[in-house]
Design brief:
Structural class of chain B: alpha/beta
Oligomer: heterodimer
Shape of chain A: globular
Radius of gyration of chain A: 20 Å
Distance between the termini of chain B: 19 Å
Shape of chain B: globular
Radius of gyration of chain B: 17 Å
Helix content of chain B: 40-55%
Strand order of the largest sheet of chain B: 5-4-3-2-1-9-8-7-6
CATH superfamily of chain B: Aldolase class I
Number of strands of chain B: 9
Helix content of chain A: 40-55%
Number of strands of chain A: 14
CATH topology of chain B: TIM Barrel
Number of helices of chain B: 12
Strand content of chain B: 5-15%
Largest sheet of chain B: 9 strands, parallel
Number of helices of chain A: 16
Order of helices and strands of chain A: EEHHEHEHEHEHHEHEHHEHEHEEHEHHEH
Strand order of the largest sheet of chain A: 3-4-14-9-10-13
Largest sheet of chain A: 6 strands, mixed
Strand content of chain A: 15-25%
Largest interface: A-B, 35 and 44 residues
CATH architecture of chain B: Alpha-Beta Barrel
Structural class of chain A: alpha/beta
Chain lengths: ~400, ~280
């Protein structure tokens, strides 16, 4: 790990080149470069436009259903016998996850830019569903690229996207998961430059995407600040969220980065275990490289060839991570942990039984570390977990795994 | 300064024809066969060799070159082996320029300074790195120029008049005009529009302009040769590799000839267009 000078603020990035320290940037083909610059310009203007912000606010409230509740998980807290656990209920948003916050912003931006065709990549299908939903709402053509492996394991979401009028393209190249869906979306964008807007689902890709997606997702952390103030009269002691690309985590973390007394934990997917080599933990098991338009931590071999990620959760099954997370990792501001498939499955079942909330497998990874951390902490410790998505999409997959074990 | 690249373009100009640039992937379908293919290219009529450095995630490439890269990786090709291939080729041919083409990550992981030293020592003449736009010039472009390697930039239909000087600024060797918005081997370009674009670029630079992406047949090659200083062919050559393989994806006695014969036909197409010596 390189030594990073401690900045005055952890919230001032990226710089004008789209970098967080050495991470981020704009590593794209020349064909896309003018488009990326246009997008940056359009986003800067929209951000400063009160009517854009008013539109966002109105749709977040009446269409998405924000603010999402901050719920005190009383039985989970009692069961673990330590820290007081609050769940940020992003799974209650329209479409069932935090993804819609970002998609709404990008779709409103696409409309301002006069784009009529929206493309997206998706892993678990949550970003695809959110994109298909908002495209239906605004009458835009929608094409979603999804790895063929993910199409198979997240069928309920494929059906939903189709019902919403989107075209789902199963991607057969490479490892046939999220990274290949991203490659294919980039190939589409490079081909359809005039009318197409690429709606990226996480805090990755070329600048300005990591910044823009973070900004749209920061509504999560902004709400938590107000809600915890109301509930506890103070800031939380810790925050915890799962990380694939890292958008739900960045949305929760960003408003708290300059509060040194708030401990922050990100949880990567450890798959079969870091030592097995079959995981999706880019920070824990990867190193810096360049992929999908940015420099960040990646899983790769000696020759710089990208290796396949492994996770039970399609939404975390990505060999990279957002560049701002890479920077926060090296700067030491956020502590990055990991949870295995097995631990996530246990947490999935525990929350379902104790709180009557079936979480998605993605936030089940964060819950797995909560199960370990909370009992060691005093009862006055206030911990906020981002419950980034609901588990309906995972029910068939988890049922099949549990069924196999019984027989 | 005379380089292998400038000498080759000068030679082609003197023979009143456009140059033929041929792309194949290092290690496709296996290392030994790809060395034989590369060795056969100059005699078949290739003026400049573009050698693909395989990468798992070639975002700007179509299905043909994607598959070609995967065949090479499956056969165990690495960046180190690709540099060795260039070195071996140089023992037989000291004249034909070789351009390495690929993506930044394998170079970054090899180490930029070490890569430039190794490439120079092996006899590489220039680099095309798809995911390094001028905004990232300090990563590899400037160090490459400093070490005497050409850095060949792609200009595209989306590179407008205002942006063109920025794209051409640090470009050396030649300019590679991407004739379509899209991936390699996809749509066939509109040759009229290509001609206009080449003239537009030539107003901004004295460098030769090569045109590629979507150029597949000897007829396409001839059409591009009307407008450009060089014609780049890639996808159809790696397709010729693929169709020559046996059921298990191994090279056959036909593989090298399949590529060489296609190059001969393409060279004929290019040579049929007589260009006034400048």
């Amino acid at each position: 790990m390189s030594v990073v000078a401690k900045p005055n603020s952890f919230r001032s990035g990226p710089d004008e080149r789209g970098r967080f320290g050495v991470f981020g940037g704009r590593f794209v083909a020349e064909t896309l470069m003018p488009l990326v610059l246009d997008l940056e310009h359009a986003y800067t203007q929209a951000k400063a436009d009160p009517s854009f912000r008013a539109d966002m606010g109105s749709f977040l409230r009446h269409y998405v259903g924000r603010p999402s509740p901050l719920y005190f998980a009383e039985r989970l807290t009692a069961h673990l016998g330590g820290a007081k656990i609050y769940l940020k209920r992003e799974e209650l948003n329209h479409t069932g996850s935090h993804k819609v916050n970002n998609v709404l912003g990008q779709i409103l931006l696409a409309r301002r830019m006069g784009k009529t065709r929206i493309i997206a990549e998706t892993g678990a299908g949550q970003h695809g569903v959110a994109t298909a939903t908002l495209c239906a709402r605004f009458g835009l053509e929608c094409v979603v690229y999804m790895g063929a492996v993910d199409v198979e394991r997240q069928k309920p979401n494929v059906t939903r996207m189709n019902m919403l009028g989107a075209e789902v393209v199963p991607v057969q190249s490479g490892s046939r998961t999220l990274k290949d869906a991203l490659n294919e979306a980039l190939r589409d964008w490079v081909t359809n430059v005039a009318d197409t807007f690429y709606c990226i689902g996480t805090v990755a890709g070329p600048h300005p995407y990591p910044m823009m997606v973070r900004d749209f997702q920061s509504v999560i952390g902004d709400e938590v600040r107000e809600q915890i103030e109301e509930a506890e009269g103070r800031l939380p002691d810790s925050l915890i969220a799962c990380i694939g690309g890292g958008s739900n985590a960045m949305g929760l973390f960003h408003p708290f980065l300059d509060e040194p007394e708030v401990a922050i934990y990100g949880v990567e997917a450890a798959g079969h275990g870091i030592a097995s080599g079959l995981h999706a933990a880019s920070l824990t098991g990867g190193r810096p490289g360049i992929l999908h338009g940015n420099r960040t931590y990646l899983l790769m071999d000696q020759d710089g060839q990208i290796t396949e990620a492994h996770s039970i959760s399609a939404g975390l099954d990505y060999p990279g991570i957002g560049p701002e997370h890479a920077w926060l990792h090296e700067a030491g501001r956020v502590t990055y942990l990991s949870a295995t498939d097995e631990e996530a499955l246990e947490a999935f079942q525990l929350l379902s039984r104790l709180e009557g909330i079936i979480p998605a497998l993605e936030p089940a990874h964060a819950l797995a570390r909560v199960i370990e951390l909370a009992p060691k902490l005093p009862s006055r410790h206030v911990m906020v977990v981002n419950l980034s998505g609901r588990g309906d999409k995972d029910v068939p997959q988890v049922a099949e795994i549990l069924e196999k074990r019984r027989t | 300064m005379t380089t292998r690249l400038s000498a080759r373009f000068e030679q082609c100009r003197a023979s009143e024809r456009a140059a033929l640039v041929t792309f194949v992937t290092a290690g496709d379908p296996d290392h030994a066969t790809s060395l034989e293919i590369v060795k056969a290219l100059p005699e078949a009529g290739a003026d400049i060799i573009e050698l693909g450095m395989p990468f798992t995630d070639p975002m700007a490439d179509g299905p043909a070159i994607q598959a070609s890269g995967l065949r090479a990786l499956k056969g165990g090709e690495t960046l180190v082996k690709t540099l060795a291939l260039v070195r071996d080729f140089r023992e037989h041919d000291r004249e034909t320029p070789i351009i390495l083409m690929g993506y930044y990550n394998p170079i970054y992981i090899h180490g930029v300074a070490r890569f430039l030293d190794d490439a120079k020592a092996a006899g590489v003449d220039g680099l095309i790195v798809v995911d390094l736009p001028p905004e990232e010039d300090d990563e590899l472009c400037l160090p490459a120029l400093e070490s005497g390697l050409a850095f060949i930039r792609l200009a595209t239909p989306t590179t407008d008049e205002k942006r063109l000087p920025k794209v051409l600024g640090n470009t050396r060797g030649f300019v590679y005009y991407v004739s379509i918005t899209g991936i390699t081997g996809a749509a066939t370009p509109d040759f009229g529009a290509v001609s206009a674009a080449v003239s537009r670029i030539k107003r901004h630079t004295p460098l030769p302009v090569a045109v590629g992406f979507g150029v597949k047949t000897p007829e396409h090659a001839a059409a591009v040769a009307e407008a450009a200083d060089a014609v780049v062919i890639g996808s159809s050559l790696v397709e010729a590799v693929r169709t020559s393989l046996d059921g298990q994806g191994r090279a056959t006695s036909e593989t090298v000839d399949a590529v060489a014969n296609l190059v001969r036909a393409l060279a004929k197409g290019v040579a049929a267009v007589r260009k006034a010596a400048a």
